[in-house]
Amino acid sequence: MQQVAPLLSETFFLARGDRLCDGAVFPLLPLMTAHLETPRSIVDPNGTPALTLLSKQALKTMPASTSLMSLFHTHSEKITVDSPVLSPDTLPFSAYPLHRPAVFLDRDGVLNYDHGYIGTRERFEWITGTFSALRRIARSGHHIFIVTNQSGVARGYYSEDDVKSLMSWAIASIRSEGATIDDWRYCPFHPTAAIEHYRQDSEWRKPAPGMIQDLLMKWEVQPADCFLIGDQETDLQAAAAAGMPAYQVTSEKTLLDWTMELLP
Fold it and tell me: Is the pLDDT score of 155 beyond 50?
């Protein structure tokens, strides 16, 4: 067992649930290295979890979609101390921004060529430079979210299961290339849908901001810390309605071009 002892460091942070605690930049354990590649959770002699330590760098690079509570319970190295540690319930929350900024992306016409109503892998063609762009965004510390209108469902060209299957394959492909998609939303509705179930004016259908707002709320991201890259005017309108800037992909300026300019 390790003794709790001072450690001079401005690197380490304490987590209380999914929030950092005030005083998180304070000395704690001497067993830390300056790198702290793996988050570490502290438990008392009874195995009661108390605090999670992680580095400032870990805040930027830890798997998106993985909350600190998940890190605490399943992904971190456990350290047992032979004396009670500070209860996280007694530590005030910190104003340090735990949650990262985000880049919102349209899909068709941004990540892949828009051949019209794409519901299968056979019709899905990556735009050159997409993986490089996504790696650049990921390295910058931003979440990466996709928000895509999929009226092909409403028109009967393919099903919601087809959308999900295609996105699962696309995300797996992106991850195999060293990047990731942290979360995504799609809207299957259209006001003149051929299928009655999908015939509605949805707040999730761009230019409405519903998909963006849902992700902002789930991930506790501030619009001022985000931007959107899309290829249609409706993408830009949705971003404006959600309170964030947006940039338009064209045949002359791709996603990679924009990321090189915005995230040098």
Answer: yes
Known catalytic residue at 114:
no
Q: How many Cβ atoms from other residues are within 10 Å of residue 35's Cβ? A: 10
Q: 161 an active-site residue?
A: no
User: Of residues 22, 82, 89, 108, which has the active-site annotation?
Assistant: 108
pLDDT tens digits for range 6-43: 322 333 444 444 444 433 333 333 333 344 455 555 55
- Whole-angstrom distance, CA of residue 98 vs CA of residue 55: 11
DSSP string of 195-219?
SGGGBS--TTSTTS-HHHHHHHHHH
**Cα distances (angstroms) measured from residue 69 to each of 11, 20, 97, 138:** 20, 11, 16, 22
Please state, in angstroms and rounded to a whole number, the distance separating the CA atoms of residues 161 and 20.
38
CA-derived radius of gyration, the chain: 22
Cα separations in angstroms, 110 against 80, 131, 137, 209, 254: 48, 11, 14, 18, 7
Which is the catalytic residue, given 22, 44, 89, 106?
A: 106
Task: Enter the pTM of the model.
Answer: 0.67
Structure tokens at 146: 């996709």
CB-neighbour burial class of residue 258 (10 A; exposed 0-12, middle 13-18, buried 19+): buried
Q: What is the DSSP letter of 193?
A: -
What is the layout of strands, in order, in the sheet containing 226-230? 183-187, 143-149, 102-105, 226-230, 246-248
